[in-house]
Model the fold of this input.
Amino acid sequence: MGEQRRPPPPGARPAPAARRPSVAPGGVRAPALPGAVGPWLNGPPVRGWRGAVTLVDFWTYSCVNCLRTLPALQGWHARYHEAGLTILGVHTPEFPFEREPANVARALRDLDVTYPVVLDNDRAIWERFANRHWPHRYLIDPAGSIRHDHIGEGGEAATERAIRAVLAEAHPGAHLPPPVFDPDAADDEAVAAGAYCVPATPELFAGYYRGRSGNPGGFREDEPALYTDPGGYREGYIHLQGRWRVTADAAHFLGPEPGALRVAYRGAAANAVLAPSPDNAPVALRVGSAALSDSGAAPATAPAPSGAERRLTVDAPRLYELFADPAPTGDLALLTLAPEAPGLAVYSFTFGRGC
Done:
């Protein structure tokens, strides 16, 4: 896909912070906000950039990388709002349920987000910025120029140095509160020398638009179908068992026969974007993770999970943590979702790269 939810992979360590400017000396002009966007949550609309220091953050509430950046954003809002910083969350949805204002409002409450958020359902702001990433933050000065931007997770120390520098320019002589992050911290996400990192499977999708089917004949697009899981698991493929309807964005379990969705993966954590039935009735499921040989050998017919197992209730459309550190060695594992009733919708999976 064009957008990226995951941050760029770690690379070479950049120059120490002392050798790098906190804020770009110039900066490109930030595009104007479209006139007809919204709804707006957590406050009145932000009308423009002139005369304000604004941190714009593109995110969506089911994105695991976005969720990991929210504590920093909320911390900056609490620390610098009185000093003149406005944080604007631009919620650009990836999945249909993220377009619903009630779902976003519930997520803001659950996530303790209190700064202004605008719903960018038609991607009008996204396109104005020519943005292609979740998350992506832009710091805009009172003249309307972008002075700093960062893609993905990390970079908090550099972003905060930029915030403080632009606030100091905008309000000469004003006293700024102490920083949230160590100003001398490294700006990259490189790990310590010699550290072992568990590899992670890239983000996977369960809908036919971006997903890959491991079933014979592939997905039956938008049609109810009875699937038989053939085994022979390969990393990154969706295997269905039972009666499902696969749409562009998700796989929907129909039942009433027992069913399962399995995927072979590597990672130090497993997460999934799930939703309950259309009438929002909660759906219970069993979640399992079991070791899998590189040949893909595993039981192919039993829908129940094996190995490590837990029960989960899906009561709202959002990101769910399935396992933390289920395959710490980086070996191939088989993830199984076994819904106990019809109605479950499975959208995507993300896996953590542990070090």
